[in-house]
Each structure stands twice: as structure tokens, then as C-alpha cells.
Write a structure and sequence with these properties.
By secondary structure, the chain is α/β, with parallel strands linked by helices. The chain contains 16 helices and 12 strands.
Length: 373
């Protein structure tokens, strides 16, 4: 089977990298037809906040899609066209191109950019932009022959919001790249610290304030250290909170290279997921959950419909209330019970290898694509 992976998708985003790698692992030839449209998160926020009205942006759009079309004309034959994430505006061109060749096309929706914009409160900055995004997303979701999503709760939200039939959706979990995230030897016991690791963006979706609150509650436990890796708009506020509360049990660090991240996970006693209260946070399973599981680490994340549907909480990970108290209690529970940590880590690794490895994702997605045979 030959797949044309098409669009202005974020080429270095883990979802797209994992989907492409998973397909190649199960023998699919993937031809990437990609031209970048966006220059980063700040660029997308600026455009949504009113930058879309500027002629320079529309010239960029025209130039990008012309280049994408030119690449497509040289891609050669394929069996199925897949649109990567985000693809809300790529769908319309893809529909025309796939129809010309009488080929099916599939869209990995993954996240609603309308919902992301709402959660970032961009509707308070430029309401007309949000309305445009919602209408475009609604039309885009009706075009493909098949839609891919990572969790059932997200499918339910999309169906309710846009009145889409659920039969068009197929579920492919996010998973993780187990060529990078795999078990490593435990760290040498140079100290007696119990290391709790969080890495990710400082945005409401991830609920960093819950982690900070848990650190405050556990300040008297001098052997517990919170390691916080990452950046984002809420980091300055997080650092101010830690300074005001005298949270000497937190270490802040900028992003590390992806190649260095597994060694940091290996040094941790517990890995943290997400604890935000946003719809996006409750409907998704974040990368860091899968990555910790792939390395055989005990993971604590916030309770949610997505977590309950995807895992066996209490056996494959701990799912706690999305509160500082709930997280603090779960950290203490794991700190005081090494056997539980070992069991959770072993079960997490087994679950990952069975259901969320690249090989598993590739087989699952390939099975869906064969529905077009």
C-alpha cells in the first residue's frame, strides 16, 4: 500500500511523526507531500487574533498552497491520501485532488483548532476569527471518507458540536515512539530524593497550578523533589508562585532535547501527566502519559473520561482527582509503597507494548485503511 501523507501539517509534531513511522513499520510506503504554512504557536495565535486580515498572510496562504499543489503533481501514484494534523484548511484542496484520481482520503483530526482557540480565550480578542474557524472546521469534517481521532470522548464532542455521524470515525491512540522511549536502567542511588517529573508546556490544558499546589502541600517532605521541564505562557506565573510560597522542592528547567528526555524520565521515580480542567485536557491522553508508560514508569495523571476509557486506573497508572490534594495524596501513596510503583510500572510497560507502540498503532491504522480495498 502507498499512502500520500498530505498537507501543511506540523512536520515535527509527535502525532504526525508517530503516524508516519507507524505506517512505515508495518510495510506501508509513505510519500510525504508537505509544505509548512505556520511558523509556530505564536504565529498561529497572531493570525487568529486578527493577523488573517492582513494581505501578507493571504499571500503566504496562496504561495503555500501553490507549492503544495506543485509537490502533489510530482508525488506519483498512491492508494490513499491522509491529511496530517492540523489539516482543517488542507481538506478542501485534498478533496479535489483525491477525487480527481478517484482515491479515498482520510483526515487525522486529532484536535479541534476551534476548541484550542476557545481555550486560549482568543474569542475575547477576535470573535470573528473564532466564528470563521468554527464554520471552516464544520465544513472540513464533512469532506473526508474517514476521520481519525485519538479518544472516544473527543469523537463524542466533535459529533455533538458539528452534528457528524460517528460512523466516519476510527480511533488511533496517540501512543509514543518506542524507538526513543523505552526502558532504561534505574539511576544509581546517589541521593535519597524521591523525584517527581513533569515536562510539557505551561498552559491551562496541562494544569501546572495543580502540580504547584501539590508541591506546596508536600513541602515538609524534604526528600520529595519536583522537576519541572518546559516553557510556555504560564511559566513566569508558576515561578512567581513558587518563589512567594518558598517552594524549595521545585526545580524549573527549560526544554531539553528529545534525545535527552528519556534519561530524565529514567531518573524519575514518578512521572506526571496532565491535571487541567479544560475540555481538551479531559478528552485527550497527553503524550507524556504514553511516554512514561513506554519506559515502564509509574504515571500519575488526572481523572477523566478519556483516561477511564483508555486504561485500567489503579493497575496501569494512577488517576487522581484534578486537585492539589488529590495529586499530593497519590504522590505520597507511591512514595511509601515501592511494590505498588513496581507493579504500576510493569503493567504500564505491558499495556504500552500491547496497545500503544508504533507497531501496534501501525497495525491498527493499516486495518482501517484496508476498509477501502
Amino acid at each position: 500500500m502507498i499512502v500520500c501523507y498530505f498537507g501543511t501539517y506540523r512536520q515535527n509534531y509527535s502525532r504526525n511523526k508517530n503516524m508516519i513511522a507507524a505506517l512505515r513499520l508495518v510495510g506501508v510506503e509513505v510519500k510525504e507531500c508537505h509544505v509548512p504554512l505556520w511558523h509556530g504557536v505564536e504565529d498561529r495565535v497572531a493570525v487568529t487574533s486578527g493577523g488573517w486580515k492582513k494581505p501578507a498572510f493571504w499571500w503566504r496562504v496562496i504561495k503555500t498552497y501553490w507549492q503544495l499543489y506543485w509537490k502533489y503533481t510530482h508525488i506519483g501514484e498512491y492508494d490513499i491520501l491522509i491529511i496530517g494534523y492540523p489539516g482543517q484548511f488542507d481538506v478542501f484542496l485534498a478533496k479535489m485532488l483525491a477525487n480527481r484520481k478517484h482515491k479515498p482520503f482520510v483526515w487525522d483530526v486529532f484536535m479541534s483548532i476551534y476548541l484550542v482557540a476557545l481555550e486560549r480565550q482568543l474569542d475575547q480578542v477576535e470573535d470573528s476569527s473564532i466564528n470563521f474557524i468554527r464554520k471552516a472546521e464544520a465544513k472540513a469534517l464533512k469532506k473526508p471518507d474517514m476521520l481519525i481521532q485519538d479518544t472516544q470522548p473527543y469523537v463524542d464532542w466533535l459529533c455533538e458540536t458539528y452534528q457528524i455521524s460517528p460512523w466516519k470515525f476510527r480511533l488511533v491512540p496517540t501512543g509514543a515512539d518506542d524507538r526513543i522511549f523505552r526502558p532504561q536502567p534505574e539511576r544509581s542511588q546517589k541521593d535519597s530524593l524521591f523525584r517527581v517529573l513533569y515536562y510539557g508546556s505551561y498552559i491551562p490544558n496541562h494544569g501546572v497550578s495543580v502540580i504547584l499546589g501539590a508541591a506546596e502541600l508536600l513541602l515538609a517532605h524534604s526528600d520529595i523533589l519536583f522537576e519541572m521541564i518546559g516553557e510556555g505562557p504560564d511559566r513566569p506565573e508558576a515561578e512567581r508562585f513558587a518563589q512567594q510560597k518558598g517552594l524549595t522542592n521545585i526545580q524549573f528547567q527549560d526544554w531539553v532535547l528529545q534525545d535527552d528526555l528519556p534519561s530524565r524520565i529514567a531518573q524519575a521515580d514518578v512521572c506526571l501527566g496532565a491535571f487541567g480542567q479544560t475540555p481538551q485536557s479531559l478528552m485527550t491522553v497527553h503524550n507524556k502519559v504514553y511516554e512514561g508508560m513506554a519506559m515502564g514508569k509509574p504515571v500519575i495523571t488526572g481523572q477523566s473520561p478519556a483516561i477511564a476509557a483508555q486504561f485500567r486506573p489503579g493497575e496501569e497508572l494512577l488517576a487522581c482527582p484534578r486537585s492539589a490534594q488529590g495529586l499530593a495524596e497519590s504522590i505520597l501513596q507511591l512514595k511509601e509503597d515501592p511494590a505498588l510503583r513496581a507493579r504500576l510500572g510493569a503493567n504500564a510497560l505491558h499495556a504500552f507494548q500491547e496497545r500503544y507502540s508504533l507497531q501496534s498503532l501501525g497495525k491498527l491504522l493499516l486495518g482501517y485503511l484496508h476498509e477501502f480495498d
